[in-house]
Amino acid sequence: MRNICAGFGFTVREELKRLVANSARGGENDERREVLTMGGVASRFRKKDVRLLIAGLDSAGKTTILYKLKKGQRQLEIPVNTVPTMNFNVENCRYKNVHFSVWDVGGQDSLRPLWRHYYTGTQGLIYVVDSNDRDRVRKAAEELHKMILDNEMRFASLLVLANKTDLPHSLSVEEVTREMRLGEIKDREWKIQPTCAISGDGLELGLKWLAANVKSI
Ligand code: G3D
Ligand code: MG
Fold it and tell me: What is the pTM of this model?
């Protein structure tokens, strides 16, 4: 218990107080509102600097997630760095101790050497999958497995977000787990979390897990 709470940056007593106060206020919804901000995310990661990479095929929901986390932080800009000749966009965002880089994977293999530049020091990989995109889930799996094979990514804990679960024909978490071949990943901690980036459902749970499971490099 102590370790878990230490991972989140608060004491057991503070956590109990928070849970009691939260349930008095009406439970889960308040909990979600509280944490869906960069401030909430940063506090989960204690005081240390943390580098997170959010990746996935285009349209998986990465930018929506970033803006969902940014909610309430009006002063925070998300700069987009572009390598014009290569059609490569990286969204960078820093809030307190947490640094996020976001980009689309898939497409041109010629861009791969560029990605590696951003891998260095990555402690957490948030890989976003569109659970409703049955045609491209295999492709999403291929890209993920290529990515985590890279030596620079060897310390990164892996959070897979099975996004767009609000859509009626989306794959179940079990189906995404199977299609993404997550069972083959033995060299690091990983977790799959269903999410709806638009409402924010599931984001908090995923980030809590990641905060407790990133390793310092
Ligand atoms: P990307 O940054 O990974 O490329 P975006 O993806 O965040 O730009 O999202 C692509 C589209 O998917 C957006 O719709 C966005 O609103 C939608 N989307 C993202 N997350 C969810 C989700 O959880 N559920 C649903 N139903 N849609 C989602 P548009 O229409 O703007 O292209
Ligand atoms: Mg985007």
Answer: 0.81
